[in-house]
Specification:
Elements (H helix, E strand, L loop, with lengths): L1 H34 L24 E2 L12 E3 L14 E4 L8 E5 L1 E5 L5 E7 L5 E7 L6 E5 L1 E5 L5 E7 L5 E7 L5 E6 L1 E5 L5 E7 L5 E7 L6 E5 L1 E5 L5 E7 L5 E7 L5 E6 L1 E5 L6 E4 L4
Antiparallel strand pairs: 1-20, 2-12, 3-4, 5-6, 6-7, 7-8, 9-10, 10-11, 11-12, 13-14, 14-15, 15-16, 17-18, 18-19, 19-20, 21-22
Length: 291
C-alpha cells in the first residue's frame, strides 16, 4: 500500500514538472514571435554594373583657370653632364618606311625629327642621374649635347628646341636652346612644351594653384603666360588657331577638348586623352578606354 502511494506521488510530481516545462516553452515561443530575434545575414551578392563614359551634357564648357604663372625671361647656362649617356637603356633607330633593317643612331628615347629632316632631337639618361637633351644627324654620327632635360620640341624652322628641365625646388620649367647648343633660355615653370606651327608661341602644362594642371601658352621669345584651360597634353592645330588638350572629368576619367589659342571656353569632343591633329586640321586622333 505504501509502495503504491509513493509511486502515485512520484507520477503526480513528474506530471506537474512536464506541465510547468510546457507552459515555459509556450511563453518563450510567444515572446520570440512578438519581439522578434535577429535575422540571419544573407550572403552578399556583388552587383555587376556596366558604365559608359559620357561627356558633359553641354558641348561647350567654360573652364575657369588660376592666375597666370610668373614668367620672367632669363638666360641660364645649363651644364653638360660629365659623363656619356647610360648605354644600358633604350636606343634610337631609324628604319625605312618601306621596311628593312633599323639603323642604330644613339642610346636614348623620345626622338623628335627636326621639321627640315636634318636632325633628330632625343633624350638620353645620364650616368649621374636625370636626363639630357641631345641632337644627332638623321644619317647618324656623334650626338650633340644641348641641355639637361627631356621632352624636346623643335621650332618650325628647326633653329631652336624647347624642352623641360628639373628645377632646384623639385619642380620643372620650360626652356629654349639653340639647335647648335648654347645657353638655355628660361620661359616659364611647367612641362610638355609644344611649338605652334607658325613658330610664334609655345603651349605647355603648368601646375594649377588649386591642384592638378593647366594649359598655358607663351610667346617663344618669352613674356607672360596666357592661361587657356585646366588640363594637360596640349596639341596645336596645324594653322596655330586652336589647341586640343586633355582635361580630367568628374567621374575620374579624362576627356579631349579644344580651345582657341587666344583663350575662351573649352569645347568638349570626346572622353579620352592624347589628342593629335590631322595635318589638314579636319580631325583629331585620340586615345580612349576600350569598350
Amino acid at each position: 500500500m505504501t509502495e503504491g502511494k509513493t509511486r502515485s506521488r512520484g507520477q503526480r510530481r513528474l506530471a506537474r514538472a512536464l506541465v510547468v516545462f510546457a507552459v515555459v516553452a509556450v511563453i518563450w515561443f510567444l515572446i520570440t514571435r512578438v519581439l522578434g530575434g535577429p535575422d540571419e545575414a544573407p550572403e552578399a551578392t556583388p552587383a555587376v554594373t556596366s558604365t559608359t563614359a559620357q561627356g558633359p551634357a553641354s558641348t561647350t564648357s567654360a573652364l575657369a583657370g588660376p592666375d597666370e604663372p610668373e614668367t620672367t625671361t632669363t638666360t641660364q647656362t645649363l651644364q653638360s653632364p660629365t659623363s656619356t649617356p647610360n648605354l644600358e637603356d633604350t636606343s634610337l633607330y631609324v628604319v625605312d618606311a618601306a621596311g628593312g633593317s633599323g639603323v642604330f643612331l644613339a642610346p636614348g628615347s623620345q626622338p623628335v625629327w627636326a621639321p627640315d629632316g636634318s636632325r633628330i632631337a632625343f633624350t638620353a639618361p645620364a650616368d649621374e642621374g636625370g636626363s639630357a637633351v641631345y641632337s644627332i644627324e638623321a644619317a647618324g654620327g656623334a650626338g650633340i649635347f644641348l641641355a639637361p632635360g627631356s621632352e624636346p620640341s623643335w621650332a618650325p624652322d628647326s633653329s631652336r628646341i624647347a624642352f623641360t628641365a628639373a628645377t632646384e625646388d623639385g619642380g620643372s620649367a620650360v626652356y629654349v636652346v639653340d639647335a647648335a647648343g648654347g645657353s638655355g633660355v628660361f620661359l616659364a615653370p611647367g612641362s610638355q612644351p609644344v611649338w605652334a606651327p607658325d613658330g610664334s608661341r609655345i603651349a605647355f602644362t603648368a601646375p594649377a594653384d588649386e591642384g592638378g594642371s593647366a594649359v598655358y601658352s607663351i610667346e617663344a621669345a618669352g613674356g607672360a603666360g596666357i592661361f587657356l584651360a585646366p588640363g594637360s597634353e596640349p596639341s596645336w592645330a596645324p594653322d596655330s588657331s586652336r589647341i586640343a588638350f586633355t582635361a580630367a572629368t568628374e567621374d575620374g576619367g579624362s576627356a579631349v577638348y579644344v580651345v582657341d589659342a587666344a583663350g575662351g571656353s573649352g569645347v568638349f569632343l570626346a572622353p579620352g586623352s592624347q589628342p593629335v591633329w590631322a595635318p589638314d586640321g579636319s580631325r583629331i586622333a585620340f586615345t580612349a578606354p576600350a569598350g
